[in-house]
């Protein structure tokens, strides 16, 4: 019987396992198994592993990604200052209806850029009733003031429309008389007089400053 040299104990064990495992399936002898094992490449000489697929290119850290340039903001339309709005209200305003039985005259003066003085007059006999002067804050579109007369409360609202002043009054009676609240609307026009506004100076005929 011809003897074969097996490289080492590990190879012998593998040879025995292959011989037993394959004994029922093929006519392989121990010598043939040893020959197969002897032709295996020694440890450490297997082929180089397949390199992994290259990763997709990435942006270098710190390099900004180009973006579209945002459009500049649209400038806001110019607005009228509070001081100019008050200047448009100043003056002595008379009710266009000379036969009114309600409010007859309204004198508006400037307290500051946020407040306006309101001096009202109502129809009375033989002369108009002086409501007195109050101070109220300018607001848009209506400026609102409140008169307290003891027997009633009168809420006055006004705004400038073109060359006219629209005025609304609301009377709320507090004297327990049972009278229903009343409201009225008027159109006032400014009387000729001394009116000073930015860039504008007007005076009635015959007026001469002393």
Notes on the structure:
This protein has 210 residues and is of the alpha+beta class. Among the domains are: 9-38, no CATH class; 82-192, Beta Barrel (Lipocalin). It is 14% helix and 34% strand. It has helices at residues 9-22, 30-38, 82-87; strands at 91-95, 103-110, 115-122, 129-137, 143-148, 152-161, 164-173, 182-190, 195-197, 200-202. Strands 4-3-2-1-8-7-6-5 form an 8-stranded antiparallel sheet, with no helix packed on it. Strands 9-10 form a two-stranded antiparallel sheet. A hairpin with a 3-residue loop joins strand 5 (143-148) and strand 6 (152-161). Helix 1 packs across helix 2 (30-38). The radius of gyration is 52 Å and the shape is elongated. 10% of the residues are buried.
Radius of gyration, in angstroms, nearest whole number: 52 Å
- CATH level-four homologous superfamily name of the domain at 82-192: Avidin-like
Strand content: 25-35%
How are the strands ordered across the major sheet? 4-3-2-1-8-7-6-5
Q: Give the uncertain stretches in residue-range form.
A: 22-26, 75-80, 195-210
Q: What are the secondary-structure elements, in order, as H or E?
A: HHHEEEEEEEEEE
Shape descriptor reads elongated
The amount of helix comes to 10-25%
Provide the CATH top-level class of the domain at 82-192: Mainly Beta
CATH architecture of the domain at 82-192: Beta Barrel
Number of helical segments?
3
The average pLDDT score comes to: 74
């Amino acid at each position: 019987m011809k003897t074969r040299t097996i490289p080492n104990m590990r190879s012998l064990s593998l040879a025995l396992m292959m011989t037993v495992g394959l004994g029922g399936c093929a006519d392989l002898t121990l010598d043939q198994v040893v020959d197969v094992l002897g032709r295996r490449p020694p440890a450490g000489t297997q082929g180089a592993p397949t390199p992994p697929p290259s990763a997709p290119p990435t942006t270098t850290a710190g390099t900004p990604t180009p973006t579209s340039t945002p459009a500049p903001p649209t400038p806001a339309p110019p607005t009228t200052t509070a001081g100019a709005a008050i200047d448009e209200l100043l003056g002595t305003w008379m009710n266009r209806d000379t036969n009114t039985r309600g409010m007859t005259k309204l004198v508006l003066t400037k307290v500051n850029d946020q407040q306006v003085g309101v001096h009202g007059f109502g129809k009375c006999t033989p002369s108009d009733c002086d409501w007195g002067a109050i101070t109220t804050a300018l607001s848009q579109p209506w400026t609102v003031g409140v008169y307290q007369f003891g027997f009633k409360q009168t809420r006055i609202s006004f705004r400038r429309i073109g060359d006219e002043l629209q005025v609304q009054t609301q009377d709320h009676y507090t004297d327990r008389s049972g009278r229903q609240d009343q409201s009225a609307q008027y159109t006032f026009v400014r009387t000729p007089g001394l009116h000073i506004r930015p860039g504008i100076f007007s005076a009635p005929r015959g007026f001469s400053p002393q």
